[in-house]
Amino acid sequence: MKIILLKDVANVGQRFDVKNVADGFALNFLIPQKAAEVATEAALKKVATLKAAAEAERKVQHELLAKNLKELNGITVTISAEANEQGHLFKGLHQKEIVTAIAEQTKLAVPFESLQLEKPIKEVGDHKVIVVVGDKKATITVAISAK
Prior knowledge:
By secondary structure, this protein is an alpha+beta fold. The protein folds into 2 domains: about 1-65, Ribosomal Protein L9, domain 1; about 70-145, Ribosomal protein L9, C-terminal domain (Ribosomal Protein L9, domain 2, Roll). Helices cover about 35% and strands about 30% of the residues. It is built from 3 helices and 9 strands, in the order ββαβαββαββββ. The protein has helices spanning about 25-30, 40-70, 95-105, and strands at about 1-5, 20, 35-40, 75-80, 90-95, 115, 120-125, 125-135, 135-145. It is elongated.
């Protein structure tokens, strides 16, 4: 059966992809879960316009984020976290916490996927974090202080 995916489905495809799947899989799983719809002529036209709109939106977001990257370069974001006497944090700081702090302190929205952290930050002090969008990079300093 030819279907249009309405959501990303593991081992099947991405949103807006047109795929051929087994009838039972489509009728018993994908369609009831609202993850797909039957690929009719009208649905294919609708998906083509939705796909173009989603691509345009993604491009605008990418350009806006690249512009915001210039403003981010060199800033210092301060985060206060619980730590012991030696300066080790009780809980490591991940991309999500850093992105939240960036949004609160600079009013710039950064997707957490664009932060490059090899591992969670687990110590008090200044840490350099690289933000990558496409081929552009910015370096920010994350200053961790103990509560």
